[in-house]
Amino acid sequence: MIKRKNTSKTKKRKYFGTDGIRGRANIYPMTGETALKVGMAAGEYFTRGKHKHNVVIGKDTRLSGYLIEPSLTAGFISMGMNVFLVGPMPTPAISMLTRSMRCDVGVMISASHNSYEDNGIKLFDPNGEKLSDKNELKIEALMDKNHHSKLVDSAKLGRAKRIEDAAGRYLEFVKSTFPNALSLKNLKIVIDCANGAAYQVAPRVLWELGAKVISIGCNPDGTNINHKCGSTHPNLMSKMVKKHKADIGIALDGDADRCIICDENGNFIHGDKIIGLIAKRYLDQGNLTGNSIVGTQMTNKGLENYLNSLSLGLIRANVGDRYVVEEMRAKGCNIGGEQSGHIILGEHGSTGDGLVASLQVIASMVEKSIKVSKLMNIFSLLPQTTESIAYNSNNYKYKNSDQFIKNKIKIAESKLEDYEGRILLRASGTENKLRIMGESRNKSLLIKTLNTLKIEITNYINEQ
Question: What are the structural domains, with CATH classification, of the chain?
Answer without folding.
Answer: 7-165 (3.40.120.10), 185-268 (3.40.120.10), 270-375 (3.40.120.10), 384-462 (3.30.310.50)
